[in-house]
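Lab notebook: predicted structure, single chain.

Context: the supervisor wants predicted structures on file for every construct in the current expression panel, including those that have not yet been purified. This is the next one on the list. No modifications to the sequence; it matches the entry in the shared construct table.
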Amino acid sequence: MKREEIKKETSKESAKPETVDDYLAAIPKEDRRVLENLRNTIKSAAPEAEEVISYGIPTYKYKGPLVHFAAFKNHLSFYGINKSLLETVKDELKDHKLSGTTIHFSAQNPLPEEFVKKIVQKRIEQNEERAKNK
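Prediction complete. Output recorded below exactly as produced.
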């Protein structure tokens, strides 16, 4: 393979997804199924949120950043839980690993839909309050 072809092939593989559909398409089937369910739960809890790719991961914005999710080799992550909110729900997360303000989960142990809805609703309230006080 010529040097130019190698460079082109490498840049294709490392290309960042432009849409959440692109992002999900690149994930293994079992993890994709769980993240598609998470996506649908977020969208139903925050129908006015804008769905974008930010920092290379699926992101939902409503009067500012709302929540994000990502897939990694050994775990899935749910972001957007600030420290004060995390304190109020950490007892519900005994079966999941916390890292800072990120919740790690797996396809075998996904986040419960009702939990995700509660977090998204609280984040909406926080963003609305912050927007009102600007």
